[in-house]
Amino acid sequence: MASTPAFAVTPRIGSVNVATADSAYTGTPTNVGTVITGASGGTRIAEVVVKTAATSAAAVVRLWLFDGTTYTLFDELLVTAATGSSTVAQFRSSTLYTNLVLPSASWSLRVTTSVSQSTNVLALGADL
Length: 128
Known about the structure:
By secondary structure, the protein is mainly beta. Helix content is about 0%, strand content about 55%.
């Protein structure tokens, strides 16, 4: 256990666009995108944002923790159907986390989508 607490030092934003469906719940997903990779001293992720482009179908975005060897399903975020236009906003959702930490540079947050559509996923946090 550390003798002094670790505070966020350097702000970090990671992003990826996933567009190909993947139905995996366990094992190794095949159409996975890397949102952010941890720093050597660890990276705390405070928020994950999902934003679709234009028209979206209902879907599930799955967040995976990857330790360099094994994928572990961490969370699932729902995407609702929406038809964006010049007067209607496209789908956007954000989820706050108090317990999402990538402990080292070998860990990363990865993402898949259950429906083939352009889906942007952002991670907002800071290195420890």
